[in-house]
Structures
1.
Amino acid sequence: MTMVKKNDRVRRRPVVVHIAHPAPPVPPAEGSAMPDRLIITIDGPAGTGKSTVARALAHRLGLDFLDTGAMYRAAAAIAIDGELNIDDHEQLVNEIERRDLHFDFDTDPPTLLCCGESIMHRLRQDDVTKLVSPIAAIDKLRQEMVKKQRQIGVQHPRLVTEGRDQGSVVFPDADVKFFLYASPRVRAERRAKDEMAKGQPVLLEELERAIRERDERDSTRTVAPLTCPADAERIDTSHMSFDQVVDALAAHVSRVLGARFTRRPRARGAAVGGASGGGGGAGGGGIA
Ligand code: DC
């Protein structure tokens, strides 16, 4: 039986992905064709800056933001704090259900609540980070999380959602899908920078090895392995700044929506590239 103990907790704070605060939200242009439903998925391995990028993109496009890793992290925190047996999947899932995990979307970023109280302070603590990978590999738990995420997609149909399986499993019919990637070396360097900024000693080779191992585990697990969906836009962020990544994503969303809205109103015979035509910049396609 695998018990987790509260005193396994470690003090170190987690990786915070480099870079600046998101730009202020840009509302859709007056009279523009912002769709009622727009689901954008961002998947990829750890250390690619997905979460920060997803949040900034959501901000820029005026969409809601969903961090699904936070849900698995909260499950790990509940298991630790409740000293649950993580091999008893049924009990684990029931206990997590009992905690009524849900987001308060009135805050930015949305606050994840557990029994009505914020659990955000626990999510990036080391004991949680250590346990979350095996927790996220539990099929029964994933089924519940996927259900919750789809419900959120119904309640918040204008959403940027990030994780590992958002485009492949949870929202296979998403409007726009991204897969962010960066080489293990670059991701290790980013992490090392964050750790050093916190005064923590780091061994770059060690970090890189851990990242490779985690990638291997996440992409070979039997349940919802990390994969790049065939219809996702794959972006290698290794040599891009945060702003460049957000700009590239916004521009791609713009192109996709621009093409859609250009096609729709004048379906046949009309010239492509009218007023709503998909410009290359983040402002094209009516999403400003
Ligand atoms: O993105 P993150 O580091 O907060 O994710 C925490 C863990 O949850 C990580 O082990 C990957 C896993 N995860 C997952 O399996 N599926 C998701 N949709 C999101 C995260």
Note: The longest strand covers residues 38-43.
2.
Amino acid sequence: MREIENIVVLTGAGISAESGLATFRGQDGLWEGHRVEDVCTPRALARDPALVHAFYDARRAKLAEVEPNAAHYALARLDAQWPGGLLIVTQNVDDLHERAGAKRMLHMHGELKSALCAACGARRAWEEPMGDRPPCPSCEAKALRPDIVFFGEMPYEMERIDAALSRADLFVSIGTSGAVYPAAGFVQTARHYGAWALELNLEPSAGSYLFSETRTGPASKLVPEWVE
Ligand code: BV8
């Protein structure tokens, strides 16, 4: 392994599981509650906006009941102490990384606490339910939608992510099943550029074979151990 200067961390629903937020593909998975086609596609939003808003309104409301866990706080400490380059790329739409104090991070699949106007493109912090289709504060159109990247939509900040992956000496994937692209392909990109790839996950993921090293266990144990 070469000298570590630049680190990219990818997180998925598994890092927030011990905070009490459901993951997507476990037995209690969110997707089990709803077929992914039902709630996470532009067509679903056009066909049944009430269902899609109810799904995201419920998850936004749940955020008020949960706290970051030891894994989020460990990454925030890494962020504060690491003198080299660091980018935390989360697939999660919760705000637990921020609430734990992480700064050098981005949400590639959007955020529950943000609203996007499908008419004028305005984006703003949002805490309220969207189910009653409130008018956009900028253009008045009743076209607010969750600021979430649906299947078939382009994830956010892909150039910034690709640039960070091309410079990474270490790529760490935490709590993700490796089921969704392009995030599931980041390990291959990082390794193509010579990074060491470490997976920290409750169980081996679909992409475990692509990693230099896989450690299995709960994030609240593995992440602090790795950061320290
Ligand atoms: C795009 C929104 C193109 C937010 C989500 C065929 C091949 C390749 C790709 C495709 C294909 N067919 C279609 C595609 C593209 C598609 C895709 O990948 N489909 C999959 C299903 C095959 N991808 C897309 O559409 C993406 N966009 O490709 O755009 C494009 C190009 C140009 C122009 C326009 C478009 C968009 C993908 C984003 C979709 N949005 N969600 C939300 O609602 O939350 S995806 C959804 O899955 C979430 O974002 C979630 O983050 C993500 C991944 O899930 P995970 O985070 O991994 O969660 P999961 O439950 O699956 O796993 C949890 C893991 O944690 C498990 O491994 C578990 O063991 C572990 N765990 C549990 N507890 C713990 C733990 N680990 C540690 N500790 C614990 N305690």
Note: The radius of gyration is 18 Å.
